């Protein structure tokens, strides 16, 4: 059985190990060593990376009590090689995993919210809780987690068997029947206690910082996106730089930025309401004395404007209104028929699509679409004649 040195503290980053076996597997090779510092994937934590001699370790997994290393080249069985751990990756994973224990343990103690899922990826980590936590609860959870970090509490482990595990009171227990079950305690169990096969920091202080970045409702509970240690520091620094950049663009400070944005949002909403009112007035003016078959084009009109204009044209006597609008380098069009008209608007839009190389559709009552190019007066004339023929048929 492989001797597992990846649980040792301080972290062992390099060791001499003998190759027990090595065979081709998939597009690479699978090797077993007599001992290793490479953690195999498990418990929601990705595998370590590193090298064994000249071979790159692409992954690792546990099989029948052995740690199998997946390599890009073969090793010679019986030979001793130096195993080098990617220490930065290991420390990152240990920070995230220890932080997950702190958050999960405190979520259980403070809110009776149980961890029902944990996933750690290369650039994010998530926890799924079976209870919904509001914003105030998440703020408290983050504050309590960082308070536990500042206390620099010990992270310890106990090895037990299945019978011994049954006598323990833990946040979470493994259902695997084994004579070697690893129990991890944070702060002697005051913060967290559960079975776990992952790697962890030696104390909560080594985690450095825990940040809850986002949350969303998930399967009756909540999913938390979080980061710890170096990841959390880098994320916070990136957000601070972005926040500072936005504040400077508004010639204000970060502290005053929310109020400035709130005021701008209110002003923008008021401007949109005023613009909408003026657009209705303009469309009403344009539709006065509308022709029975109204086919026209307006520069600067978007899809919403076309809806207002076609409705105004029909209200003012048009049997069929087909209007094109050009804005931001693209043309939109909308067709609407009034009471008593028989021309099918969906068929009309098909004809428009063919003439202007556009896309769109709708119903016999109204239809719409868009195209990249501009619409010529000649095209408008062709479409007007087509509608006239349908209505006079």
Give the assembly state of these chains: single chain
Q: Per CATH, what is the topology of the largest domain?
A: Threonyl-tRNA Synthetase, Chain A, domain 2
How many strands?
Answer: 20
CATH uppermost class of the largest domain: Alpha Beta
| Architecture (CATH level 2) name of the largest domain | 2-Layer Sandwich
Number of domains: 3
End-to-end distance: 89 Å
Could you name the ranges where pLDDT drops below 50 across 5 or more consecutive residues? none
**Could you say which structural class the secondary elements and strand pairing correspond to?**
alpha+beta
Fourth-tier CATH superfamily name of the largest domain: Threonyl-trna Synthetase, Chain A, domain 2
Structural shape? elongated
Q: What Rg, in angstroms, do the CA atoms define?
A: 33 Å
Count, helices: 8
Biggest sheet, strands in spatial order?
A: 2-3-7-6-5-8
Give the H and E element order.
Answer: EEEEEEEEHEEHEHEEEEHHEHEEHEEH
Average of the residue pLDDT scores: 95
Question: What fraction of residues sit in β-strands?
Answer: 25-35%
